[in-house]
Write a structure and sequence with these properties.
By secondary structure, the chain is of the alpha/beta class. The protein has two domains: 91 residues, no CATH class; 103 residues, Ribonuclease H-like superfamily/Ribonuclease H (Nucleotidyltransferase, domain 5, 2-Layer Sandwich). The protein has a five-stranded mixed β-sheet, sandwiched between helices. The longest helix is centred in the N-terminal third of the chain and has 22 residues. It starts with 10 loop residues before the first helix and ends with a helix. This is Putative transposase. GO terms for molecular function: DNA binding.
């Protein structure tokens, strides 16, 4: 977790601003006004720096603390505009819609799919099956990981399923990202895009009950920063 040492504002103020932005459909100028109404004078550019600096770090902690997921996975990508160009947000959920992992990439090919699948395995263990579209890159990436596991003496079969209707839950899972990013009209910086999207994904994981129960969403968000 990044240190708050040297910050000009109290830690709770920074965390509140970051959580509010990634959780709700507000612009940085809207958030600047909201903070001002609560007696905190902070510029929208500072708010952007806070989100970029802290949301990705908190999301990385959440990745490893989230509860277990089902071994039936769904994997897909959506387009995100960064600096006027389309990039790819790789996303995966289990059959119940719980978030497994996510990764922003400038490319959509075998090496990227392999990297994303390996990242999912590290945090979530081995799946029983994985539902994908007809993407050759995703097929090649999963096959490469399976061959690697087999080479290490772990020949556990992973069934790849390409049935469009089974991936409907993945399409539903994309909706909240699209609703949140549509008003942004694209990102100006790749690093900022990756950090902001990680924060949005994490905030949604909280709403789905994938982290600590018994605490309000903001408390769950904040405790990962301590």
């Amino acid at each position: 977790m990044n240190s708050f040492k040297g910050a000009q504002y109290p830690k709770d103020v920074i965390l509140f601003a970051v959580f509010f932005y990634v959780r709700y459909r507000v612009s940085y100028r809207d958030l600047e006004e909201i903070m001002g109404e609560r007696g905190v004078s902070v510029d929208h550019t500072t708010l952007n720096r806070w989100v970029t600096r802290y949301s990705d770090a908190i999301a990385e902690v959440a990745r490893r603390r989230k509860g277990p997921c089902d071994r039936s996975w769904r994997m897909d990508e959506i387009y995100i505009k960064v600096k006027g160009a389309w990039v790819y947000l790789y996303r995966a959920v289990d059959k119940h819609g719980k978030t497994l992992d996510f990764m922003l990439s400038e490319r959509r090919n075998k090496p990227v799919a392999t990297k994303f699948f390996a990242q999912m395995l590290e945090v979530n263990g081995l799946p029983r099956e994985i539902v994908i579209d007809k993407s050759g890159a995703n097929t090649a990436g999963i096959t490469a990981i399976y061959k690697m596991l087999k080479g290490y003496g772990c020949p556990i079969p992973i069934e790849m399923i390409r049935r469009k209707y089974l991936n409907n839950i993945m399409e539903q899972a994309h909706r909240f990202i699209k609703r949140r990013t549509r008003p942004m009209l694209g990102f100006k910086c790749y690093i900022s895009a990756a950090a902001t999207l990680a924060g949005i994904e994490f905030a949604h994981m909280i709403l789905k009950g994938q982290l600590t129960s018994g605490l309000c969403p903001f408390q769950q968000f904040a405790e990962l920063a301590y």
